[in-house]
Known about the structure:
The structure holds 2 protein chains of 2 kinds.
Chain A: E1 11-14, E2 20-25, H1 36-45, H2 52-66, E3 72-78, E4 83-84, E5 89-92, H3 97-100, E6 115-116, E7 121-126, E8 131-132, E9 134-135, E10 141-142, E11 153-154, E12 158-160, E13 165-168, E14 172-176, E15 180-184, E16 186-189, E17 200-202, E18 205-208, E19 217-220, E20 224-226, E21 234-237, E22 241-243, E23 247-248, E24 254-258, E25 262-264, E26 267-268, E27 270-274, E28 278-280, E29 283-291, E30 295-309, E31 313-318, E32 326-330, H4 337-368, H5 374-411, E33 415-422, E34 426-430, E35 433-437, E36 441-442, E37 445-449, E38 455-459, E39 465-466, E40 471-475
Helix pairs in contact in A: 4-5
Chain B: E1 3-6, H1 10-22, E2 28-31, H2 34-44, E3 48-51, H3 60-69, E4 76-80, H4 85-94, E5 98-101, H5 106-121
Helix pairs in contact in B: 1-5, 2-3
Amino acid sequence: MSDPQPTHNVRVLIDRDQTAAELLVPGELPRELLTAELCVEELRRCGVSLNPSVEQAVADLVREAAACDTDLRRVVARGVPPRHGQDAHIQWLVAGSEAKDSQPQSHYDRSAFQMVKVGQVVGQIVQATDGEDGVDLFGKILAARPGKSLLPRIDESISKDAHGQLVAQADGVLSVTQDTVAIRQFLEVRDNVDFSTGNIEFAGDVKVGKGVRDCFKIQAQGSVEVQGLIEAATIECQGDLSALGGFASHGNGGQAQVGGSLRAKYLDNVRGQVRHDLVVDKEVINCELTVNGQIRSPHAAIIGGRVTACGQVEVAALGSPGAVTTHLVLGTVPRLEPMRRRLQDIHDKLVQTTEKLREQQQQLISTVGRRPTASDKERQTELTYELATDQAALARAQLAMHELKARIDNFREVGVKVHRALHAGVVLDIEGISYKVTTQTKGPLSVIEGSRGELLYRVADGQARPLIQIAHTQARAA
Amino acid sequence: MKILLVDDSKTMRNIQKGILGQLGYSDVQEACDGLDAMSKVGAFQPDLLLVDWNMPNMDGLTFVKQFRAKGFKSPIIMVTTEAEKARVVEAIKAGVNNYVVKPFTPDGLSERIKETLARAAA
Lengths: 478, 122
């Protein structure tokens, strides 16, 4: 709005977009000359549309000016600015980290990614609007600008219903770019998994560009690849785990539950299970690992800890020159072990109760002698029945154990290849017997199972010899 | 096949039920004495009865006599500690079809049940 020039008359000031008009009453204008009619006439002369609200504002101004002898400037007329249309957009309905903020939550559990499940309504399309035209002080229409109807492309992983609701067609992470909206089953974390990302729980594959920090957790229904170091974190995946920068928890409880194979630069103080193979480039140090497949690590050493292997083992070295106690459990099928232990427990309990019932039966017969009472006879019937029931259950348990053993024998493989050295302090456990190596032996050597289940070793292409020549044995507590 | 077990000992009834279960019979009802059994036979219409001899309220022999007197033809196995020949004869005369003496083995009772049902079907 331009500044008024000094004058003794009432002046009308119009703003630049012509949607507001002010009246300026100079202090020098004698108030007895100031009337509403004078002001209205001045407005009319300038082309301002008049209406009752303008007339009311003018009357208020005249009343106010009568009580003051200085310049007075008041807005007395307004136009209506146009309301421009809203562009089409998607209103997201995914409960992201902001939505969870109302409840107390661990910082580890805050996720930087919007994970969605199949069938979940992820968003609502809001259509573009035309807006509403405005009008200026002189009654001229001010045209509204309509909203743009352009939306990003919606990928086939998201369906759109008749009401514009967007429904996830797959589990995954919601990916929104300028051009496309999609649910991706591959999650890429470019940096570390840390407080900036929170724990990761994902329905597909996960790739981490850097590392995984202490105490964070990745759960993936696919594979996980971590290019940096995994610290004392937990990784659970149904596919493979690739720890390209190593996995070192330094005794703080790094855990791995791997549904596929585990490939790592090195493992240090890691506990967990690997459903398929273990492939390590350098060392496996102080780990508690159960490997259902093979250990294929021809350049790696297993030092300390306890590693259980169902299949063949190939390593550069077992143990260390410092004779660190290193357990390697052979000849088991880890995934069938819980079942075998349960069956063994059932079997042992049945043997105990059967024995007890037999004793009671014998005791009853010897107590009652040749003239048992009716109640003795009923008790005898009861014991006979219980004994028969237990014996039948015992027979079933023995059959199940026999079948399970056949399955275990079918899967188990005992074979260890050591390329460089088998060190003293290594304990090879097999079928309840521990062979503790007392004499360091240079490789290449292999350890195999003899025909009676005993362990043998063979240096290079030499003859197989009993392992007890370089180890002493002891029965292992169950 | 509907089977009625008549015995005052729940343990005995459970044993008999277990053996019948192994033979594939699951439609089983229980009565704790002869009187209780008489009240159930009309509605249940058993195809086989296993009856103890010594029970309170109404003993097994009285029950067998009243059961037959009402015209029921279903086979009855007397399962009892009474092993004297005279008692066995008395029971057979009253209408018992087979006889199992306690203590019995599960196999022994199974055999008698199969034998009795085979005879009844012949």
